[in-house]
Structure formats: structure tokens, C-alpha cells
Amino acid sequence: MSDNHSAEAANLLEVRGLTKIFGTLKACDNIDLTVGKGQIHALLGENGAGKSTLVKMLFGSLEPNSGEIRWNGEPVRISNPHMARKLGIGMVFQHFSLFDALTAAENIALSLDDNTPIATIAAKAKALSFSYGLPLDPYSLVGDLSVGERQRIEIIRCLLQTPDLIILDEPTSVLTPQEADKLFETLERLRLEGKSILYISHRLEEVKRICDAATVLRHGKVVGHCTPRNETASSLARMMVGSEVLTVVREPAEGMDKARTLLEVRSLSRKPATPFSIPLHNISLNVRAGEIIGIAGVAGNGQGEFFEAVSGEVLQADANTVRIRDKDATRLSITGRRKLGAAFVPEERLGHGAAPRMRLSENLLLSRHATDAKAFLGAGGIVRDKAIAAASQRIIQAMDVRKSGPDPEAAALSGGNLQKFIIGRELDRQPAVMVVNQPTWGVDAGAAAHIRQALIELARKGSAVLVISQDLDELFEISDLIAVMHNGELSKPIPIAEATLEKIGLLMGGAEPGHVEVTEAEVA
Amino acid sequence: MRIELVKRPQQSALYSALSPFIALALTLIAGAIMFSLLGKNPLDALYYYFVDPLREMWSLHELAIKAAPLILIAVGLSICFLSNNWNIGAEGQFIIGAITGSILPVMYPDLQSWIILPLMLIMGVIGGAAYGFIPALLKTRFNTNEILTSLMLVYVAQLFLDWLVRGPWRNPQGMNFPETRNFHQYAILPEIWPSMGRANWGFVFALVAALVAWFMLSRMLKGFEVKVLGQSPRAGRFGGFSASRMVIFAFLVSGGLAGLAGISEVSGAIGQLRPTISPGYGFAAIIVAFLGRLNPLGIIAAGLVLALSYLGGEAAQISIGVSDKVVRAFQGMLLFFVLGCDTLIHYRVRFVGSTAHKAEVSHGNA
Q1: Cα A472–A475–A480 angle (5° rounding)?
Q2: B75-87 burial, b for 16+ CB within 10 Å, e for fewer?
Q3: Residue A489's pLDDT band (boundaries 50, 70, 90)?
Q4: Ordered alpha helix ranges (H), A291-333
Q5: B349: which strand partners?
Q6: Among the three residues A383, A407, A430, which one is the final residue of a domain in this structure?
Q7: Same domain, residue pair A141 and A288
Q8: How confident is the model at residue A367 (pLDDT cuts 50, 70, 90)?
Q9: Judgement on whether residues A441 and A425 belong to the same structural domain of the protein
Q10: What pLDDT band is residue A523 in, cutting at 50, 70 and 90?
Q11: What is the distance in angstroms between the Cα of B242 and the nearest Cα belonging to chain A?
């Protein structure tokens, strides 16, 4: 390759032997990567495979321990993001860095180095956004925008600096299927203009659809380069995971109509707690014994607020809005609701579901000190360490939690293993009602399959399970019914047999199919 | 150039354990430098300051007298600080505890019975706790910053005491001196071992409080609740613990213990109320709490160290003629080094700016 100068000229970015070591962990080990001009190149890998570390080195936020980066054939050292931008590398992060209280144009101005007046920036941004099919009002407040629109600001902000290489980190994880389609059109246009795109994802279907080439990472190493169009989703998955991925088995639930409702939410409304949180409008939902109801929706549409209201972390003013096992739980705290047989798993693992600096056994006590008081506490509230240690060993074995040391701090576990522990902590109680927010967010495929199977088994044993997730594939895999949350409202649950990706996608975007049909009929 | 603190991925367990000792050593070195700048022989000065007071039994008793309030207050503060409540007003709670505890012997001197002393102690605890309840209530109801409110209430308490002893509570037979009448025999906290020295039961209270708090923090659900809410409030709420109830609990406990320290000091060591009843115990106890790593057993040791700094200050004043303000300087240096060591265990210092620039320039040339 190095002898062939014409080939080198066609390559925008070449990475050779790039290595990054954190302590004893090789986050990136001898990575090779070549991105051609006008190419959409996928970077595939599970969580923790080293994708983020790699792109952070390309964008100058991290410095490699060894290895070489060549830009247009020239070796470069990218020591900070400012330099990366000067070279022509732009990045759209997975987690946006936008100020809610400022307008889109003001947010863009903040990232530019010169003192261009806001009006000029706004005009430029508007023109750019329309020409790429990403319409955006530059004077709208970020706080009022949907997640998809916020992502547009990030993309426009990146494009304004006319980069040659755009790095997109999991861009579709916050989009509805329809919004994602739009984004793909934009990416196609950018490719036609000769721009290169490094596309990070673990969604295989979309990689197959839009990417010209792919580099697959596993445990910090490159395990293969391939052309995604010539691969199948399962062959890509095998490369990513390194072994056959467990498929989740879901037997159809029977006799559901007669089953008893275990969790009932009746016209739940909630005012926004902060100026930028989502109010909930009149949410009603019944979850019966033996079934899993999935709640789909783009992040930030009220899922977190809904979870807090159902779990009892925040209490409702009106009586009878939450009923657990036929008892009014509205005025009960989270402890009271747990005692009625409910269990909860929040979205955030560290700092919400678990205290990061506490040991696993202490984190077991965190959510079960009231329900298992007899087993875990002695007279006068003395903690019984032995009983708790035994129970936490039981959970660790049942869920196959991998860890260093007998009882490590929660923060020392990988995301997937901690999530297995947190889910296992609740499953171990055999709860009658289980409410889970984002069960497998940021969890590797093996652990995700394990968690999903465990949730299905819990339901088949007669519990009511409510799963809130942004991952549609996951919901289609495990749910009996899917409802969609949009802007603080919840659609009617659709039985899985009738649910299609398109239907759910439309609801996620805010359409009400029933409503549309009526108006069409009226017009006809 | 800019100096940045970068979080270390993991903290050295060895240095965490050594940190109070390193801080003590650094304080001694800095103290030696200070003494030589004052024109004194540093070794002599340090000897009179830190060794001489430990050589006689009576002065060990004096050490216990000084250590008792420091330990009592610091034990309460450790519960506050562990639960992320920053009570800086223990000095005020100490004073109010001393005042409420003194109501019986000052206003009803004719009530003389063995029941008086226990009542005084209880009233001292209640007074301190009630005074601590004010910043707690303000924090939970109005979201005020407890650091400011608790600190400001210290000055209110100091001026209130000053007014009391000069005005309504002034001793009628006291030649117009600003002090209350002397407490009668039933209102005096007895000495533990009168033949050996003056140390009173306040020191025993301090040891008992430390042991009880240690047991609660390490073995009981309540202690778990304190730590969870302090480290990770959202996880604590998820666990079903109430953050606002914890604010009130922490302030009531620390206020109550400070109040007990106050009434023990007045009824044990002083025997009456005066315009000033504390050489800053409430503030020094903050140093004690951190020097003891917020662990009640560590606090016992740390309390003795700080008590030594008070005794040493008095001794050094007499024997080598340095100002009593040296005590404050020592305590300040000790807190500075303790916090400094702890910070450097969690963070490392990085200098940025000039080097990053150079890299960019060199690349520009290449």
C-alpha cells in the first residue's frame, strides 16, 4: 500500500498501529483504519470495543500512546479538537453539548472561533440546513426542540466548518426510523460532494444499507475489514461479538385477556418539574399478569418523568393514578410500592440504580432493605452482612455477573455486568410488577440477550413487566404489546402481531394514525 | 499557563491511610519554619508546644478537658459531612446548648437536687439540636445554602450570649462583671478521678458518642442511609431514603452533640456563663472531623491532637513567649494540609497551556 502513491492520494485518512493504553487496559490495540475520499466508512463494535477511544484520538481529545495518523498522506499529530477542526475533521457526538436556554444560532456561534455576528451565522445555518434537507429555525430555543432537531444543530454546526471528514457517533440512536431515513439521505448527498464520513454504529441493518466499507473492532483490536453490502446482518454480528449471539426465545403468551391487571396507571398527568422537562398528559395503561408491554419513543419525550411517577420517586397529587396489585399506590413512596410487590430499574446505572462508590452487596441493600428487612436486617436495624453477601453471590451467579474481586464497587464493573446485577437484584425477589427503563442501554450483545430472556421468563411466570426502551429491535423482540410515548403522551398499546416498524415510527414522530384516518375519510 | 486538577483513575489505599500523618508532618515542618521566622529556636518551640504538655498527669487531664468538646462536636459533624450537609455552625449550637442547659442553675438557683444535672444536660442537647434545626429547616423548605445560614447563626448566638451575661443573667453579687452566678454543687459536672486531675465526665460522653456513632455508621441501616445520601443522592432516593429527612436528622444529631458539648464545658470546666465560653471549639472540630477521616474512631485521636494544639499554645505562650494566635495558625495549617493531601490523593496536578501550544507550533512547521 505504501508503495502505491495513487492509492494513498485517494485515501483521506489512514491510521496505522494506533494504540491507547489506560492503566493496564489496552483500549485500542494496534488499530489500522483507512477511510477513502467520498466514502461512508462504518466503525462497528460492541460497547467497550474501543470505538469511542479511537475517534477521540482522531478528534484530538485523547492522545495515542503509539501509532501514526496520516491525513491526505501526510503524517499528523492531532493534539486537540481545535487542530482536528483546522485539518478538516468534524465530529457529531452521541451526547449533545448544547445549552437549552440559548437559540440554535447562539449555540453554533459558541463553537466558532471567530466573532462572526449571530445574524450572519443564522443566515448561513438556515441556508445550509435547507440545502441538506435538515430544516432548522436558527432562532428557536434549544430547550423547545426535539432530540432529532438538536442533532441537526450539531450536524449543521459541524458542516459550517466545511470538514472533509465527518465523524458521527451513533447518530440514529436518538431518531425515529423516519428521521433516520432523512439523515441517510443527507449522508448520501455529502458523499456525492466528495466528503468522507466515519459512521459509528452497532445497528447492522443501517450499516449494510448506507456504508461502503466497514472496520470491525472487538476488545480494542481490529478483527476485520469488510464490505457491509456483501455481508449478512448475522455475519456482521458474529464478527462484532466473536461468537454466535444468543437469540431470545419468546413463546406467545396465552389466556392474557382473562389475566389480572397488576399495574394500572389511570390518567396520569404531571407538570414539568423544571422549565426543560416534559409534562405528562393523561397517561393510562394496564399491564396484566404474564405480559410485557414495551414503551417506545425517542429519548426525552417524558420517559424519565413517567418512570419517576410510576416508581414513586416523585409522588402524584391526584389519588388513584397508580395502582399496584389492585391497591392504590399513588400516595405510597417507592418503598411502599416495593412492598406491594413492584420492582424498578432506572435508566441511569451509576448514580441512580446504584451508588458508584459502594460495593455490590451494599447496592443490594439499597433497593431491598425494606422488602427483605427480615433477611437482611437484625434487631434495631443492624445490617446482617453475611445474609446480604450470600444473596449478592446468588444474584451474581444467576445473572453471570463478571467482576474483579469478591465484592467490588459498582463503578468498577463494566456497564453490562453492572446492569445484569441491577436487574438480577430485582428479579431475585420474584416481583409481581417489574418496571424497567432502558434495560440494555450501552450493554453488550451477550449481556443484553441474557437480560431480555430473563425479563421474558419473569413475565411467563406470571409477573407484569413494563419495559421503556429506545431500542425498537429490543421491544419487537420481547414485547407482547407496544405503546409509544411522544411529547408526554402515551399511545394505545398495539399488539405485537399488528405492530410494524413503520407504524411505531410514525407514532414516535408524533403522528396519530387514528386521527389521520378520520380526516382523510372526511376529505374523501 | 494554566494549572488543572485531573482526577486519578484510582486512589492509592496506602496514601489514603497515611494522609493524616503526612498532613501532621507537613504541619510540624511549616510550624518549625514559622517559629524560626519568629526568631525562636524551632526545635525548642516544637518541644514546648507538642511534647511538654504530655509529660504530667494533670496536664493529660487538661488535654482530656480540651479534647472532650472537640470530639463530641466532630462526631456530630462527621454524620453531617458524610451525608453531604455542611454544618459550619457548630460553634453557635455549642453556645446555645450551653445557654439552654444553664437555665436551671442561673434562673432557679434554689432548685438543688441530684436531678438538676441530668436535666441540664438534656436541655443542653435540646437547645443545640433546636438551633441546628434552623438551618436544616431553611435548607429543606427554601433551599438555602446551609453553609451560610449555619455560619451566620454562630454570630447571632455569640451576641445573644454576650447580651445575656451583661444583661438579664448577670450575677447580682458579681461586682458588675459580665458573668452569671456560679453554678451550685448539683449543677457541676463531676470530675472522673478528682485525685489525679480536673478531667470531667464530658470526656466520657465524648468517647461514648464516638463509639455509638461508629457503630451506627458501620453496622446499621441508618448509617448506610447517611452514606448513600451523601455519596449519591439520586441513588439514595431510589433506595427509598428521604434526602430532606436526612438533612434534618444530621443537623439535629450534630446540633444536639454540640449542645451537649456546650453544657458539659460550662458545667464541667467553667462553672458559669461568660461572654466567651469557647476558644473556637466549633470551628476547630471541623478540622478534627476531617483529620479523623470522618470516622468517629479516628476523630477520637484527631480530637486529642487538636486539643494538644490548644494546650501547647498556652504552654508556648508562657515558656517561649509567642502569641496565642499561633494556635490558630497551627490549626489553619493543619486543615490546609489535611485537605491538600486528600485532594492530591484524588487528583493529580497538571500544567497545561504552554506545552499544548508548543506541540501545535511544532506541527505547523512540519
Answers
A1: 145
A2: bbbbbbbbbbbbb
A3: very high
A4: 303-311
A5: B5
A6: A430
A7: no
A8: very high
A9: no
A10: very low
A11: 10
Residues 6+ apart with CB under 8 A from A95: none
Q: Judge whether A22 is closer than 8 Å to chain B, CB to CB.
A: yes
Domain shared by A108 and A212, yes or no: yes
Q: What angle do CA A310, A314, A316 make, to 5 degrees?
A: 75
Q: Are residues A281 and A417 in the same domain?
A: no
State residue B120's pLDDT score. 97
* Same domain flag for A479 and A441: yes
Structural domains of chain A, count: 3
Q: Which residues in A lie closer than 8 A to residue B353 (C-beta atoms)?
A: none
Tracing cell 486531675 back to the chain, one arrives at B197
Q: Do A259 and A378 have their domain in common?
A: no
> What CATH number corresponds to the domain at position A435?
3.40.50.300
Residue ranges making up the domain that contains A375? 351-430
The reply to whether A511 falls in a domain is yes
A202-212 confidence digits (pLDDT tens): 778 888 889 99
pLDDT tens per residue, chain B (366 residues)?
A: 788 888 777 777 888 888 889 999 999 999 999 999 988 899 988 898 889 889 889 999 999 999 999 999 999 999 999 999 999 999 999 999 999 999 999 999 999 999 999 999 999 999 999 999 999 999 999 999 999 999 999 999 999 999 999 999 999 988 889 999 999 999 999 998 888 888 999 999 999 999 999 999 999 999 999 999 999 999 999 999 999 999 999 999 999 999 999 999 999 999 999 999 999 999 999 999 999 999 999 999 999 999 998 898 888 888 888 888 888 888 899 889 988 998 888 888 888 765 444 444 334 333
> Which of B9, B220, B240 is nearest residue A383 as measured by Cβ atoms?
B220
At the topology level of CATH, where does B57-347 sit? ABC transporter involved in vitamin B12 uptake, BtuC (1.10.3470)
Which pLDDT value is given to residue A394? 94
User: Quick check: is A346 in a domain?
Assistant: no
Classify A465 as helix, strand or coil: strand
B141: contact with A, CB 8 A cutoff: no
Assign A257 a pLDDT band (cuts: 50, 70, 90): low
Residue where a domain terminates, one of A188, A206, A241: A241
- Separation of alpha carbons B40 and A390, rounded Å: 62
In angstroms, how far is CA A78 from the centroid of its own chain?
Answer: 29
Q: Is residue A246 part of a domain?
A: no
Identity of residue B25: A
- Nine cell digits for residue B114: 441530684
The neighbouring-strand residues paired with A213 are A41
Within-domain flag for A13: yes
Cβ B339 vs Cβ B290: under 8 Å:
yes
Of A76, A344, A357, the CB nearest to B231: A357
Cβ separation A381–B222 shorter than 8 A: yes
Q: Which one of B219, B228, B356 has the shortest CB-CB distance to A79? A: B356
Q: How far apart are CA B49 and CA B67, in angstroms?
A: 16
CA angle (B348 as vertex; B342, B350 as ends), nearest 5:
145
Taking an 8 Å cut-off on Cβ atoms, the answer to whether A79 and B219 are in contact is no
Dist. CA A222–CA A214, nearest whole Å: 11
User: In 3D, which of B211, B180, B202, B200 has the Cα closest to residue B274?
Assistant: B180
Task: Say yes or no to pLDDT of A71 above 60.
Answer: yes
Where do we find the cell 473492532? A217
Asked if residue A192 and residue A308 are part of one domain, the reply reads no
Range A111-127 average pLDDT: 84
> What does the block give as the cell for A262?
397488576
> What pLDDT shows up at residue A479?
94
Helix (H) / strand (E) element for A363: namely helix A360-368
Residues 116-135 of B with CB under 8 A from A: none
- DSSP 3-state assignment of B294? coil
Average pLDDT over every residue of A516-521? 39
Pairwise CA distance, residues A281 & B43, whole Å: 75
